[in-house]
């Protein structure tokens, strides 16, 4: 039996669904007939049918296809959210790390491990003491990570197209991470100086403005970038190892490069742990340059410690080779969830924002 009109979702002249044909097959035949009728009047052979591309309207677009159209703004927004959340969640552990890297800690600030340190800080100094300086960190982390991820994504694509067209290049990933670090540290370094001085045991600073004013008046504006070269010397190899490890693990855990939260978390955590352990000596030197600890404790050293060479020499004179690995446990414990949070949040917001942009464009 044939339908005379387009009833029940059919097309005029289309065979109705019978016992041997499912409604889905009938809908597909309807689409073929529509294509054939449309072509009959316009330069094609009348009645020629070409099966259309079938798409499930409820299915999400392929994740890997989305970032190709992601804008710089998308990368910046996703990066800023990821950076702020990462630093806020892990800030108490960051406070412990700073104290455990102290070369000459006060007897009341000698800790055996991270949990003991966190418990003693809360018990003796108050519940909110590990959070002091969080506001300046969040303020710096937003723009720093926005620049960081936007620069990384742009350079990764550009360099990969040159080095390995149509594929993924570990060299491009590492190089993009290194260049992105230059922008990140330029924005973040002043916040790091203020944060670490407020985290130290018996810090005289209770407010960010007090710390900024004191550093500016006593040491000058250059104090906010005294550790910049050491920070770069640490973060450039850190990010090179970090990004290369992350992309390498993604190729194994998520070869289709779809939105896969578990693979982002696992890859980010492993990449952060490897990079953190390898660069701990440089982080100890950076902490010394930021806090100028030897001056605060009236040690035998005179004058400001400036430059990476001076920091390396001071660390060795005070504690020997083992001093370069002070706080390595706290640093690794900090970086594992920190990088996992950063990558998973960044990939989620990149996916979410780009998906909404695609839906908005499709609806116009």
TrEMBL record:
Main function: Mitochondrial iron transporter that mediates iron uptake. Probably required for heme synthesis of hemoproteins and Fe-S cluster assembly in non-erythroid cells.
One matching Pfam family: Mito_carr
Origin superkingdom: Eukaryota
One example of a Gene Ontology biological process annotation: iron import into the mitochondrion
Ranges that cross the membrane: none
A cellular-component GO term for this protein: mitochondrial inner membrane
GO molecular function: ferrous iron transmembrane transporter activity
Keywords, in A-Z order: Ion transport, Iron, Iron transport, Membrane, Mitochondrion, Mitochondrion inner membrane, Repeat, Transmembrane, Transmembrane helix, Transport
Catalytic activity: Fe(2+)(in) = Fe(2+)(out)
Topology with respect to the bilayer: Multi-pass membrane protein
Chain segments carrying region Disordered: 1-60
Protein family according to the UniProt entry: Belongs to the mitochondrial carrier (TC 2.A.29) family.
Localization annotation: Mitochondrion inner membrane
Stretches forming Solcar repeats: 70-158, 168-252, 259-352
Name of the protein in question: Mitoferrin-2
Keyword Transmembrane helix set for record: yes
Compositionally biased region (Low complexity): 13-27
Biased composition (Gly residues): 1-12, 37-46
């Amino acid at each position: 039996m044939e339908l005379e009109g387009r009833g029940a979702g059919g097309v005029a002249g289309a065979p109705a669904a019978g016992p041997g044909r499912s409604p889905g097959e009938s809908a597909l035949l309807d689409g073929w007939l529509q294509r054939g009728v449309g072509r009959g009047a316009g330069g094609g052979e009348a009645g020629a049918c070409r099966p259309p591309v079938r798409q499930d309207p409820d299915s999400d677009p392929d994740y890997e296809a989305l970032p190709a159209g992601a804008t710089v703004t998308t990368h910046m927004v996703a990066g800023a959210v990821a950076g702020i959340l990462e630093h806020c969640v892990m800030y108490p552990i960051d406070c412990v790390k700073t104290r455990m890297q102290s070369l000459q800690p006060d007897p009341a600030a000698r800790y055996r491990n991270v949990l003991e340190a966190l418990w003693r800080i809360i018990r003796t100094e108050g519940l909110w003491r590990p959070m002091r300086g969080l506001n300046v960190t969040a303020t710096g982390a937003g723009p720093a990570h926005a620049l960081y991820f936007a620069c990384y994504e742009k350079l990764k694509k550009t360099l990969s197209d040159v080095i390995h067209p149509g594929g993924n290049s570990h060299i491009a990933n590492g190089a993009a991470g290194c260049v992105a670090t230059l922008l990140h540290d330029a924005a973040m370094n002043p916040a790091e100086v203020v944060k670490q001085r407020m985290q130290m045991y018996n810090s005289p600073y209770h407010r960010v403005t007090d710390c900024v004013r004191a550093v500016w008046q006593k040491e000058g504006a250059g104090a906010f970038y005294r550790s910049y070269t050491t920070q770069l010397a640490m973060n450039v190899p850190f990010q090179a190892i970090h990004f290369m490890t992350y992309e390498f693990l993604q190729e194994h855990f998520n070869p289709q490069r779809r939105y896969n939260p578990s693979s982002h978390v696992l890859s980010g955590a492993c990449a952060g742990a490897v990079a953190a352990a390898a660069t701990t000596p440089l982080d100890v030197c950076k902490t010394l340059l930021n806090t100028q600890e030897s001056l605060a404790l009236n040690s035998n050293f005179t004058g400001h410690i400036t430059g990476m060479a001076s920091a390396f020499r001071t660390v060795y004179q005070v504690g020997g080779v083992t001093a370069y690995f002070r706080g390595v446990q706290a640093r690794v414990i900090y970086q594992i969830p920190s990088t996992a949070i950063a990558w998973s949040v960044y990939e989620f917001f990149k996916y979410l924002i780009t998906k909404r942009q695609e839906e908005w464009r499709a609806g116009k």
